[in-house]
């Protein structure tokens, strides 16, 4: 099952009535979202292992390295390929990606991640924001948040979530123009991976910084997602769920428009100015 975006399993479906009595028990095949590890290796050094939905792995690696501040352009990566030695029963697992950087780029052990690995790793929120601001490759333009546009984008993202419709358990990220048209939409079991895939695509297409685009997420807005959006140059981030406190503080510190709970005709504006 290696490398599959979805897998089928027999599952028992159970339904109860209003009184808690069983009304239906049947077994049938069900699709679930693929989740496999992707090890990103630069030279002989593993710099990250993330649980992801297989697909668009090259974009994911480019987006990860860019949003973490390790590279500044697509040209900084000379080679990205699956390791032929990562096999199970003689078959390539496609779970180990070898990256070769231009000689001027060196990733040290002290730079393995810019973003927080857990919510309790002991790094002060203020310090994290200041570190990120120092690494920003460009400042964000001030773009008022268009309420009518915000009201339409989550539904446009949802309509293109093919894996979500099939499995019900996967996140999506989408880059949209200000006229509401989509540039790229990617899905992944990890919301940060979905964002990295979008950023990686834009990087490979020469579309960064994304000053004229809007990043829309099917998830909540965390510090990590705001950081990635800021590094890629998105002036606006829209999430369909809540925003964390550090995400709000980071958005305000970078001048990003941050929207949460974007559902139909209502949303919360946590940061930025509203277009009236």
TrEMBL record:
GO terms for molecular function: sulfur carrier activity; sulfurtransferase activity. Required for formate dehydrogenase (FDH) activity. Acts as a sulfur carrier protein that transfers sulfur from IscS to the molybdenum cofactor prior to its insertion into FDH. It comes from the Bacteria. The gene is fdhD. The active site is at residue 121. InterPro entries: Cytidine_deaminase-like, FdhD. GO terms for cellular component: cytoplasm. Keywords: Cytoplasm, Molybdenum cofactor biosynthesis. This is Sulfur carrier protein FdhD. Mo-bis(molybdopterin guanine dinucleotide) binds at residues 261-266. It is found in: Cytoplasm. SUPFAM superfamilies: Cytidine deaminase-like (SSF53927). Belongs to the FdhD family. GO terms for biological process: Mo-molybdopterin cofactor biosynthetic process.
